[in-house]
Amino acid sequence: MKNLILAVLLAISASAWATEDSYEFDSPEQRQLFLSLTEELRCPMCQNQNIADSDAMIAHDMRRKVYNLVRQGKSGDEVITYMKSRYGDFISYKPPVTPVTLWLWLAPLLFAVLAFLLVVKRRKSSPPEDMAAKLAKAEAMLKQDNK
Amino acid sequence: MKKLFIFGVPLIAFVILVVFLFSGLFSDPRELDSQVKGKAVPDFSLPDLMAPEITYTPEVFSGKVTLLNVWGVWCVTCAVELPYLTELTQQEGINIVGLYFDQDLDPEFGTKTLNRVQQEVRDITGRFGNPYAFHIFDVYRDTALDLGVTGAPEHFLIDHHGVIRMHHVGDINERVWNNKVGPLYRQLKQELAQQSGAE
């Protein structure tokens, strides 16, 4: 158990350290903004990493840019817009809702509704057969076998 | 009717899935929608790599069709395409301009001297061919970022108004030139000829 806690602590401290670089900030809020932005921005080179994790040169440059913009007092949205105007919607891990991406939210919902309707319909369309009639039929078959 | 439904619906769903996945096989995740296509070259003021006293602005692109080649000596593919690009300048007379940026030159802790960068560039172009009219030195890699560059080599076809008409990620070889870049280049040349003819 102790080892596990140690491992978790080590993992956390390593990732925090990796994003820090040598940047200095005027306030803890700016540092927080920088950290959350570098986590949300996606590296265009190593496409499954955010720029906080990636060691590609472009990620270094983007971190430097984010740092400078944050130091200039830009808000988080302004930095995201800045990057989007250069690299497109791709650059953010939060997809915007557009007619194309709307299906990401709609499709699972539609699927669930459809499945629900199908289940309800199944239930209704197969009414229990008359037990008495079934028994009578079985009785008749038995009699025939006995002959 | 019910049988048709039971077989038909999964079949249609299957076909849609196959088409979707099949098209995914040929889509390149590196091919991003370029944000600068159709726009003027973003503003910059950068020195010439070989003669730093000269300063370039987007003005240098007006009046001719330019192929802007983003490159660096540290990039292997860039060196590979140099012979073909050199051949192209001889065959078609293209105006190829380099947007040079250095990888080792960390803007925060610059350690490399300009002399060394110049020497490295001379070495490479001496060995593989020199297609460049001149090099714009993107010292802080800001202009590369403004252009949406993700690595090297990347190419931008710029028309005589200084508007970016194509953003090509990756190298230019014979196939890429014949199928993609060449046709647009000739079209831009024609636009330029038409305009200067009209004046």
Summed up, what is this model?
By secondary structure, chain A is mainly alpha-helical.
Structure description:
- The complex is a heterodimer of chains A (147) and B (199).
- Chain A is an all-alpha fold and 147 residues long.
- Chain A folds into 2 domains: 2-91, Orthogonal Bundle (Helicase, Ruva Protein, domain 3), CATH 1.10.8.640; 102-146.
- Chain A has 6 helices and no strands.
- The longest helix of chain A is centred in the C-terminal third of the chain and has 24 residues, at 102-125.
- Chain B is of the alpha/beta class and 199 residues long.
- Chain B has a single domain (42-198), classed as Glutaredoxin.
- Helix content of chain B is 43%, strand content 17%.
- Chain B has helices at 2-25, 76-92, 114-128, 142-146, 174-198; strands at 46-47, 55-56, 66-71, 95-100, 132-137, 154-158, 164-169.
- In chain B, the strands form 2 sheets. In chain B, strands 5-4-3-6-7 form a 5-stranded mixed β-sheet. A two-stranded antiparallel ribbon of chain B has the order 1-2.
- The longest helix of chain B has 25 residues, at 174-198.
- The termini of chain B are far apart.
- The relative contact order of chain B is 0.18.
- The model of chain B has no long low-confidence stretch (mean pLDDT 88).
- The chains are: A mainly alpha (147), B alpha/beta (199).
- Chain A binds chain B through residues 22, 44-45, 47, 56-58, 61-62, 64-65, 84-88, 90, and chain B through 29-30, 32-36, 103, 107-108, 141-142, 144-151.
- Chain B: Keywords: Cytochrome c-type biogenesis, Disulfide bond, Redox-active center.
- Chain B: GO terms for molecular function: disulfide oxidoreductase activity.
- Chain B: Residues 35-193 form the Thioredoxin domain.
- Chain B: InterPro entries: Redoxin, Thioredoxin-like_sf, Thioredoxin_CS, Thioredoxin_domain, Thioredoxin_ResA/DsbE_sf.
- Chain B: Pfam families: Redoxin.
- Chain A: Possible subunit of a heme lyase.
